[in-house]
C-alpha cells in the first residue's frame, strides 16, 4: 500500500512537522533540490476549476526535476463512467504520483484504492489538506511556530477548509476555533477526530456560534468563500446567514495585536472578507498562496521517499 495524502490526518504530527521542515528547505533552496529528476511524471487531475493548485503543482513538479501532466478530466473518460479504480491502475503504470481535485471524498478514496503510487488530495468537498500545509508553513513563518497558537476560522464551518483547519491545525498542536451559523456546522466525526488528535498534541478544538468569541485573542484569523465549488446552484441564501461572520476591521479588533489573516483564495471581496483586511498589513494571503508551491514540493518529495522505502522493504 503506498502512502496517500487524502486527509490532513494521513500525516502524523511528527510527519507533518517533517514535511513542513522540508518545505522551508525547499523554499530557501528553491532550484537545487531535484528528487524527481529522471524525470519522474506526476499526473495532476481536475474535476473542478483551479488557479493556485494547478499552477503550483505544475511549477513545483518541474522544479523538482519531474514531469507534470496536468489534465482537466472533462477531456478524459471520467465523465463517461470509466471506473476510478481502473483509471488509477492505468495511471500507476505511467506516473510516480497522482493528484486529484474532485467532489466527493468517495471519489478520491476510489482512486486511491486502485493506485499503486501515492495519491494526493488537491481538494475535495471534505478536505483541502495541501492548502493546510501551506497555511501551517505560513503560520510558522509569521507566528514563530504552530504549537499553542490559536487559530479562529469564521464562515462556512461545514466546508473543506473548516474540516482541514480542525484536523490539520490539531495535528500541528494549535487551538482551533471554528465559528459559523446554524445549519453550517462541521461534520461531527471530523470534530471528534480533530479532538482526539488535539489531545495528543496539546492543541484543542472548539465549535462556536459567536464569531467574536472565536476571534478573541486569536493569533490567526482565517476565512474562506461562503459558496464553495459545486454549491453555486443550491438555492440557499448564504449571504444573509454568513454576514455576521465577515472578517472586517471591527471583527479583527478582538484578535491578538499581531494577528495574521489567512484566506486560501479566491476571495469574494466584500463578502467573507473586506478589501481593507485582505489588502491590509495583517494579511499574509500572498505568502500563503506562494507557500502552496513549497509545501507541495515537500509533500511530493516526502511521499515518494516513503514509497521508495516501502517498495525496498517489500523487496520490490
Ligand atoms: N486555494 C486554492 O486551492 O485555489 P485554487 O482553487 O485556485 O486552486
Ligand atoms: N471552499 C472552497 C475552497 C477553494 C479553494 C471551495 O471548495 O470552493
From TrEMBL:
Origin: domain of life: Bacteria
Record has Nucleotide-binding as a keyword: no
Name of the molecule in the record: Ornithine carbamoyltransferase
SUPFAM superfamilies xref list: Aspartate/ornithine carbamoyltransferase
Family membership noted in the UniProt record: Belongs to the aspartate/ornithine carbamoyltransferase superfamily. OTCase family.
Upper taxonomic lineage: Bacteria, Bacillati, Actinomycetota, Actinomycetes, Micromonosporales
Main location class: cytoplasm
Organism of provenance: Plantactinospora endophytica
EC number: 2.1.3.3
Positions of carbamoyl phosphate binding: 101, 128-131, 264-265, 292
Pathway(s) annotated for this protein in UniProt: Amino-acid biosynthesis; L-arginine biosynthesis; L-arginine from L-ornithine and carbamoyl phosphate: step 1/3
Ranges of residues in domain Aspartate/ornithine carbamoyltransferase carbamoyl-P binding: 3-141
PANTHER family on file: ORNITHINE CARBAMOYLTRANSFERASE, MITOCHONDRIAL (PTHR45753), ORNITHINE TRANSCARBAMYLASE, MITOCHONDRIAL (PTHR45753:SF3)
Reactions catalysed: carbamoyl phosphate + L-ornithine = L-citrulline + phosphate + H(+)
Residues bound to L-ornithine: 160, 224, 228-229
Alphabetically ordered keywords of this record: Cytoplasm, Transferase
Aspartate/ornithine carbamoyltransferase Asp/Orn-binding domain boundaries: 148-303
Enzyme class: transferase
HAMAP family named in the record: OTCase (MF_01109)
Localization of this protein: Cytoplasm
Amino acid at each position: 500500500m503506498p502512502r496517500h495524502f487524502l486527509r490532513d490526518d494521513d500525516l502524523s504530527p511528527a510527519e507533518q512537522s517533517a514535511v513542513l521542515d522540508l518545505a522551508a528547505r525547499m523554499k530557501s533552496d528553491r532550484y537545487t533540490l531535484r528528487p524527481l529528476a529522471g524525470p519522474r511524471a506526476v499526473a495532476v487531475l481536475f474535476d473542478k476549476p483551479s488557479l493556485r493548485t494547478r499552477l503550483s503543482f505544475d511549477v513545483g513538479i518541474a522544479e523538482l526535476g519531474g514531469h507534470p501532466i496536468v489534465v482537466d478530466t472533462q477531456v478524459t473518460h471520467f465523465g463517461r463512467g470509466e471506473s476510478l479504480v481502473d483509471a488509477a491502475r492505468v495511471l500507476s503504470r505511467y506516473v510516480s504520483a497522482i493528484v486529484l481535485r474532485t467532489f466527493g471524498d468517495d471519489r478520491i478514496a476510489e482512486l486511491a484504492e486502485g493506485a499503486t503510487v501515492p495519491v494526493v488530495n488537491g481538494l475535495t468537498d471534505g478536505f483541502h489538506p495541501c492548502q493546510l500545509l501551506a497555511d501551517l508553513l505560513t503560520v510558522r513563518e509569521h507566528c514563530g511556530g504552530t504549537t499553542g497558537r490559536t487559530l479562529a476560522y469564521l464562515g462556512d464551518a461545514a466546508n473543506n477548509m473548516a474540516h482541514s483547519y480542525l484536523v490539520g491545525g490539531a495535528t500541528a498542536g494549535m487551538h482551533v476555533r471554528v465559528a459559523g451559523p446554524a445549519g453550517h456546522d462541521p461534520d461531527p466525526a471530523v470534530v471528534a477526530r480533530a479532538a482526539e488528535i488535539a489531545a495528543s498534541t496539546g492543541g484543542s478544538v472548539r465549535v462556536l456560534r459567536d464569531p467574536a468569541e472565536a476571534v478573541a485573542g486569536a493569533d490567526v484569523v482565517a476565512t474562506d468563500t461562503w459558496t464553495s465549488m459545486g454549491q453555486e446552484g443550491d438555492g440557499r441564501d448564504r449571504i444573509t446567514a454568513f454576514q455576521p461572520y465577515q472578517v472586517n476591521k471591527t471583527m479583527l479588533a478582538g484578535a491578538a495585536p499581531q494577528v495574521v489573516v489567512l484566506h486560501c483564495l479566491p476571495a469574494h471581496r466584500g463578502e467573507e472578507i473586506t478589501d481593507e483586511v485582505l489588502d491590509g498589513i495583517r494579511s499574509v494571503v500572498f505568502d500563503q498562496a506562494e507557500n502552496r508551491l513549497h509545501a507541495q514540493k515537500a509533500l511530493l518529495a516526502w511521499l515518494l521517499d516513503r514509497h521508495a522505502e516501502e517498495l525496498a522493504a517489500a523487496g520490490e
